[in-house]
Amino acid sequence: xxxxxxxxxxxxxxxxxxxxxxxxxxxxxxxxxxxxxxxxxxxxxxxxxxxxxxxxxxxxxxxxxxxxxxxxxxxxxxxxxxxxxxxxxxxxxxxxxxxxxxxxxxxxxxxxxxx
Amino acid sequence: xxxxxxxxxxxxxxxxxxxxxxxxxxxxxxxxxxxxxxxxxxxxxxxxxxxxxxxxxxxxxxxxxxxxxxxxxxxxxxxxxxxxxxxxxxxxxxxxxxxxxxxxxxxxxxx
Lengths: 115, 111
Fold this sequence. Notes:
The structure holds 2 protein chains of 2 kinds. Chain A is an all-beta fold. Chain A contains no helices and 11 strands.
């Protein structure tokens, strides 16, 4: 089945730790995105990547890092510099065959909690 | 800052009624518009996309776009309790690649 797989579903982080969230897609999509969602809030863009080995900061990139070494994979690292990391993290991807008129599809999300 | 505004609700409608969800956006060069449904604790699911002024229908859902008024709406006909969820409006500008989301409208369909 084609889709976007995020892992783990739940993640607990201790203060001062870096953690990495996985996002893999087998849809052959060019673009991938990371969003953060806090309770009762919309989605805020952390990073996005249009092609391999290239990515851009979104609105709330501070304390996060990403890599795009393969088309299928776009892992997100939440560093210790992110002061309030507890949130629901969503990875999405989209093709670019119709330019801007392409839909984005989401993985099932990773819920990160600082303990 | 490109703003996408939605009434947070909750919007409560009886089963079988029409639910009307509204969204306004600030970036005049916005080109693509999307509605996502999100159940509690789950990830967003794409319902509709619309790119041109006017109406677009898909089953019980109709998306309406008015670029001059910077307004996009979603109508849900014959609302069902299973439609109870948060509906997110998303907008893509022709100067960017990522989607900008509103905070969502909570819809409650009562039996």
